[in-house]
Amino acid sequence: MSGSLTVVGLGPGNPDQMTPEARDAVTAAEDFYGYIPYIDRLNLRPDQRRHASDNREELDRARAALEMAAGGGKVCVVSGGDPGVFAMAAAVCEAIDEGPAQWRDIELVVVPGITAMLAVAARAGAPLGHDFCAISLSNNLKPWSVIEKRLVAASTAGFVMAFYNPISKARPHQLGEAFDLLRQHLPGTVPVIFGRAAGRPDERMRVVSLAEAQGEMADMATCVIVGTSETRLVERSGRPPIVYSPRYFKEKSESEAGGA
Ligand code: SAH
User: Fold this and answer.
1) pTM to 2 decimal places
2) Is the minimum distance from the CB of 115 to ligand 1 under 6 angstroms?
3) Quick check: 149 and 176 in contact, CB under 8 A?
4) Among the four 3, 45, 46, 155, which has the fewest Cβ within 10 Å?
């Protein structure tokens, strides 16, 4: 008999930002699969089993979890933030798509969570108040040339961009290269938010202009939000600035747009 597999998003790190639905799913499960620090965030009971693994083994982890569920287990796969945003839900779907037919009989539930860009945006004001997109800067699963193409397309189309996986030890220069590329297409005044470890004790928020933005301002725990020329910075004395993207789009007059 097939069991169940629940893919749960734990939120950005603050226990208050984990949903009651996610908590209930954790209480109900028996076997847990996930990256070690995420499993460590759960206060598991002695009867709940941990199958923690390294971050790079997502597809193997998904297959192991499906194998356990196919044998009748009540299995939980955990992700930080939302499990559907650059995380385990897609790995599980991919494994089912390519796996044995009986894996399709497993009861699959995906429990959403607060994704990093929402936690960071909330700290800054409302930078995602108008159209936006999310881009992973990791080239582990796609070529850097594709990432560059998407950066140019999104910035020139007027999307606010949230960058996940902005930098790593293996990719120390790419975020700096991304900023150089964006400076060719966007004004230097565009606000850039570096939101590190949002919702955790070591949280750090920083807002600079695109002209000042450097790759070294981020690490792997940072979500970077790059505004558009519409995004506004409201300075406040004694408080960090508010960053927001207005809900309306101001049509440029012909003289502003440089038209004839
Ligand atoms: N599923 C996760 C994202 C996984 S990709 C989610 O929905 O949030 C990992 C990337 O997420 C990190 O490199 C970083 O860019 C971002 N991230 C995860 N947690 C974060 C946090 N608390 N604060 C800022 N960025 C975070």
Assistant:
1) 0.94
2) yes
3) no
4) 46
